[in-house]
Amino acid sequence: MNRFGHLALPSLLAVVAGVCSGAAQHPQRVVHVFVALADNQHQGIIPVPRALGNGSDAARNLYWGAAFGVKTFFLNRKDWELISKGPGPKKEILERCVFKRKNQEIYMIADAYDGSQIREAVTDFLSATAGIATPAMAVDSKTGEISLPTGGAADLLVYVGHDTFMDAPLPPVKGTPGTIPRRAIVLACASRQYFGPYLRQSGATPLLWTTGLMAPEAYTLDAALDGWIAREEPEAIRQRAARAYDAYQKCGLRGALRLFATGW
Length: 264
Hints:
With 264 residues, the protein is α/β, with parallel strands linked by helices. Helix content is 31%, strand content 25%. The strands form two sheets. The chain has an eight-stranded mixed sheet with strand order 2-3-4-1-7-8-9-10, with helices on both faces. The chain has a two-stranded antiparallel sheet with strand order 5-6. A hairpin with a 4-residue loop joins strand 3 and strand 4. The longest helix is centred in the first third of the chain and has 17 residues. The protein starts with 8 loop residues before the first helix and ends with a strand.
């Protein structure tokens, strides 16, 4: 007797199909987030309080350790759990955190770049959008060690921080469209205008970016990821982001909708 007992062939096939279908519907998906820490000294930002604007202090930084920074915000979300944290794979990355979506095989790798190294952060992000992969990362999970793709091998690529192109240009990073289109989110001021030529060179598709000045805080990313995880259409994700931004910034939904854009 096989391990399915007395199941007739049609029933056995239904069980196998159900298992395969379930596996296909829940593949591992990885988001790689590149965060350039706010830095009063090295970036052309409107100065913020010293503790929040020290680009070498990830623990208190506006875009990382503060209440609406990427690390702290996702630590406090009930549907995410921190499964790994430590130094980054190179000196420019002060800390790397890996979050897992509870009850789903969704992972977020978040890198905090020293604010003085913002150009390195943006270059690494653009390299990833061009399809340039970096070494996979091994992390421990409840079921054992797993390997997570990083850089251009991740499913979604995100930049959070100051728009460094407002200060000075960078050399373009060329790429070609992938078999599965690489998608990018850019939470920085006027990112459609400034990042647009670079994303076209990289071959990536903008899932969410901005048309004006904004605060690149983590509630917008959280809302966008909810839509991405649910496999919503880009316009629905844009609207999620706008609602979240308005809820925290009190700028009016109409204004928030004008602030965010999707696609070309």
